[in-house]
């Protein structure tokens, strides 16, 4: 049988049958969780690379670490061996953890490595996706009839091999593979720049020695101010801690709150947003009149919590010194999953002059010798990094057939996914890993369990119209909570979100042992361990 790269004892899938029940596309966190939950159907996991891990294997920097403590980023039935270690796990540790999860539940046997999905064909007929009930009945999608044909290329071959499936789970994720590239007017793009322009995705492919050689002694500009940009600027500063080293300039268009740790004035961060009591005061989708009234009455308290956190961050970090204090409340970044944990000693690098910050709120473009801001400010550069994110939805559009590819993004600019999993207008297909939270691993695991329940026939979906209304309600709740509502983030109502899935499955929604813990103790993955 085939073997996973570097793991001779791990036997992987040798052959794919012409017709199978379930296909899972992607071998990252969501793909592994889906394989474990759907093991009864002998799923075929197509992974384009030679290893599991997804972005944690193929889209990270040398110094990239998780932004979540270990106990909050683990499967409900598989703990970290060193879960009491207070440090944030490195990307290598995360991949090791995921491989251990695959070992524990014998998931390697489902995975076909080096199998890239390049085409998906719908076999259900022209009207199958536009019925009153999802997939025609709203339940029991596995009815013995293939609905999708998945085209695969392997190795260096250009030959597409097609395989038929009753159900497909898309776990390709929002990050990696397709870079988001800024667009410039003619004569103002990278073509006029004498130096090197590189997206962070390409930087991830370099070895440690190559990254140091690339940046050392160079005038570097990093475009962006989210996690990937901050980590990249940090590595640039480390490479230039030598004689002749040059500072790295971060080009900051939109400010976001950054956090040094998960402790606020000595209090655990989880008490502010991860308990039932704390989430009671925040908007949730499709809430009734009395809950809306409660949220309105509690508005001063929500603002007070946000200001309490902001006061600590402004005291702890030199945000004012560098002009990096956002003009929006902290909760708006938290509610849109844009809060970034700082690398250790990041602002010490700035204090030493190794990292500089340049606001570019009005825009920028390239020049022959660097970049020019819209106010005329010039920043010289030998190397410009574009830490501008990824177009995860484009990965879906590239392989989905019409008319489904045109339905990927809804009016809110988010994917319209019921329970963060089912597109009401795309039959016999699910999407896992496209909803964000404080712990994306938990979010994906619970969705895979819910999806398994759907395939087993444990519950019936609402009508297509009702599901679309539910999705619109989520978008409205986001819009009322944060100006960055175009990201599907459930951080401020994650417990309510989990309650809905548990209720569908017929499982308990109250997972603590008593009412005091139910109100005041933070919820985490272990609360959702299957009995």
From TrEMBL:
Signal peptide: none annotated. Its EC number is 1.-.-.-. InterPro entries: FAD/NAD-bd_sf, Flavin_mOase, Flavin_mOase-like, FMO-like. GO terms for molecular function: flavin adenine dinucleotide binding; monooxygenase activity; N,N-dimethylaniline monooxygenase activity; NADP binding. The keyword Manganese does not apply. Its cofactor is FAD. Keywords: FAD, Flavoprotein, Monooxygenase, NADP, Oxidoreductase. Pfam families: FMO-like. Belongs to the FMO family. This is Flavin-containing monooxygenase.
């Amino acid at each position: 049988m085939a073997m996973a790269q570097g793991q001779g004892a791990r036997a992987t899938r040798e052959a794919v049958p012409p017709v199978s029940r379930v296909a899972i596309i992607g071998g990252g966190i969501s793909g592994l969780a889906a394989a474990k939950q759907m093991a009864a159907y002998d799923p075929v996991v197509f992974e384009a690379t030679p290893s599991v891990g997804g972005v944690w294997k193929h889209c990270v920097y040398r110094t990239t670490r998780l932004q979540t403590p270990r106990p909050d980023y683990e499967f409900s039935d598989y703990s970290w061996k060193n879960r009491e270690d207070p440090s944030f796990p490195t990307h290598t540790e995360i991949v090791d953890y995921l491989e251990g999860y695959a070992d524990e539940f014998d998931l390697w046997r489902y995975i076909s490595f080096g199998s890239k999905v390049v085409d998906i064909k719908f076999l259900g007929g022209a009207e199958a996706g536009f019925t009153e009930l999802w997939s025609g009945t709203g339940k029991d999608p596995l009815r013995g009839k293939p609905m999708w044909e998945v085209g695969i290329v392997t190795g260096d071959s250009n030959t597409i091999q097609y395989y038929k499936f009753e159900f497909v789970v898309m776990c390709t994720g929002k990050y990696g593979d397709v870079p988001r590239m800024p667009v410039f007017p003619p004569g103002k793009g990278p073509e006029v720049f004498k130096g090197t322009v590189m997206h962070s995705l390409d930087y991830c492919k370099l070895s440690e020695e190559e990254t140091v050689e690339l940046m050392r002694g160079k005038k570097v500009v990093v475009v962006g101010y989210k996690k990937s940009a901050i980590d990249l600027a940090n590595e640039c500063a480390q490479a230039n801690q030598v004689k002749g080293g040059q500072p790295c300039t971060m080009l900051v268009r939109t400010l976001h709150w950054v956090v040094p740790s998960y402790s606020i004035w000595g209090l655990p961060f989880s008490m502010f947003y991860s308990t039932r009591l704390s989430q009671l005061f925040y908007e949730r989708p499709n809430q009734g009149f009395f809950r809306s009234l409660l949220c309105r009455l509690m508005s001063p308290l929500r603002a007070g919590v946000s200001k309490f956190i902001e006061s600590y961050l402004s005291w702890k970090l030199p945000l004012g010194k560098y002009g990096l204090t956002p003009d929006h409340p902290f909760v708006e970044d938290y509610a849109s999953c844009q809060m970034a944990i700082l690398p250790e000693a990041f602002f010490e690098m700035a204090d030493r002059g190794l990292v500089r910050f340049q606001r570019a709120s009005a825009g920028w473009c390239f020049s022959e010798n660097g970049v020019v801001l819209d106010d005329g400010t010039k920043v010289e550069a030998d190397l410009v990094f574009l830490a501008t994110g990824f177009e995860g939805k484009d990965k879906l559009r590239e392989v989905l057939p019409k008319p489904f590819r045109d339905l990927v993004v809804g009016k809110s600019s988010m994917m319209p996914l019921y329970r963060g999993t089912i597109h009401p207008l795309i039959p016999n297909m699910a999407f896992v890993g496209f909803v964000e939270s404080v712990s994306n691993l938990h979010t994906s695991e619970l969705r895979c369990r819910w999806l398994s329940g759907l395939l087993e026939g444990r519950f019936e979906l609402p009508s297509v119209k009702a599901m679309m209304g539910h999705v619109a309600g989520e978008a409205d709740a986001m819009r009322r909570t944060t100006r960055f509502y175009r990201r599907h983030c459930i951080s401020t109502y994650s417990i309510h979100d989990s309650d809905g899935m548990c209720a569908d499955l017929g499982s308990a929604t109250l997972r603590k042992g008593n009412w005091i813990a139910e109100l005041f103790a933070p919820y985490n993955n272990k609360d959702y361990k299957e009995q």
